[in-house]
Each structure stands twice: as structure tokens, then as C-alpha cells.
Amino acid sequence: MTVLVASDLDRTLIYSTAALGLTMPDPVAPRLLCVEVHESKPLSYMTETAAALLTELAADPAVVFVPTTTRTRKQYQRIRFPGRPAPYAICANGGQLLVDGLPDRDWRRQVAARLAQECAPLEEVHAHLLATADPAWLRKARIAEDLFTYLVVERALVPDEWVKALTQWADARGWTVSLQGRKIYAVPRPLTKSAAMYEVARRTGATTTLAAGDSLLDADLLLAADAAWRPGHGELADTGWTAPTVTALAAAGVLAGEEIVRAFAAAVARDAGR
């Protein structure tokens, strides 16, 4: 019996300083482990307890732990989880499947063929974002892995009407819009974490799939898994999104990450009859 554990990273397993949500008194705040450094500065954290639990989980021979993220390969490779490196990782929202750290070319070709058939070109969507975004709140515009595009914005200044209009425009062209912190993503609808998860399950012979995530871009992953969890923060929590196989946690911030790893471990133990 093999259990595949596919978890989103940012604001699910790992947390920036701004996303930690340390609302408790300082003397009882959890000890933190830095798992990402960028430009010589600490960037992302887990609680030490979550890191220890994840190390134990990933070392279980019955478990295939698959980090699953919208990050590019370069952004993902900055993360250093404790324990042995994950044999598989899903990056670029399912557009890149890494096997022992290297991109799987066959998977990338399959993804490219689907996108060409089912949605408007990346160049058209990126140009529309640049043409309609207001310089007053736009800070950066990026294309990720030649697969999707996103803006870095001053969130408080972005009109809700603009996001709604962009969502409608993109939907008619086969694209999805997701707002995550200071980033607004436009992602082709066929570009999904769930499709890549199914591929890893096929290759590993996994009989059970578990998942976690906090954003709209994680919804397909959570629905595809046999059991899934979402934290008490993020896009999905803000909209009250849930499903029969998805557990909506009350915990928010970095403590939600710890609770998610505990839930994974408990589910693996139940599946193995331990």
C-alpha cells in the first residue's frame, strides 16, 4: 500500500513572516525553522514540530511526499525541507513535473499540447494584463515557465471590479484567475495540480491520495484526492469553499501548517491499519 501526499507549499506548509499569524503571546509562540533563504535573507518557515513530523512522514516507506506548488522550478528549489529530498515535485501549477530534481520532458510535452488545443495563447493574456493594470498599483509583471502569467501588486489599491472583469475575460478564453496575497495569477484552465498528481500516482502505484492547499488554484487538487485539508485562511477559507472529502480546519497561519502535517500522518496510519 502506497500513500501519495501532495501538499501545496506557500501558506499551507510554509509561511513567510507576513503570513505566520502569530497571534498568541510571545512566550508561548512556537519555535520556527527557516526552510527558505532568498537573496541571503530568511523567507519561509515551518514550526519545528511541523518540520519534525514532516521528516518522519516523508521517511515512511509507505509514503510518497510530493511538494505541489505554483512556484517555478527555480523558486521551488530554494526550499530546503528537513530529511531526504522528495523524489517527485509538482511545480508551475502542474506544468512541470520534477523527478529527482530534474524536469520530466514527456510530461512537459503533454502539457504543452493540451494548452495549445484548449486555451488562448499566453501572449494574449499577458498583454491584456499589462494593458488593463493600473501603474498606480502594479509593481511587477511576470511570465512563469512560459506557462502562465502573474502580477505583483499593491493589494489594497486593486479594485475588486477589475479582478471580477479580468476573471470573466479570462474564463471566456479558458483561463483561471486567482488572487494570492500580493500576486494575481492568470493560469490556463487545463494547467492543474491534480493532473500532475494523478501522473505521480500512476508512476508510483499509489492506492491512496491525500492533499492540502489554501487557494483557488488548489481546489482541483483537493477534489481529486481521496482526503484533503484546507487551512482557516486563504482564498478557499475566505469564500467558505469546502467539499465532502475536504476538512476545513479552524487553525490559521503557521499553526495550520502543523495541523495539516498531523492530519497527513494520522490518515497514513489509518490507511496502514497502525
TrEMBL record:
<dbReference type="InterPro" id="IPR036412">
    <property type="entry name" value="HAD-like_sf"/>
</dbReference>
<dbReference type="InterPro" id="IPR023214">
    <property type="entry name" value="HAD_sf"/>
</dbReference>
<protein>
    <submittedName>
        <fullName>HAD family hydrolase</fullName>
    </submittedName>
</protein>
<keyword id="KW-0378">Hydrolase</keyword>
<dbReference type="GO" id="GO:0016787">
    <property type="term" value="F:hydrolase activity"/>
</dbReference>
<dbReference type="InterPro" id="IPR024197">
    <property type="entry name" value="TPP-like"/>
</dbReference>
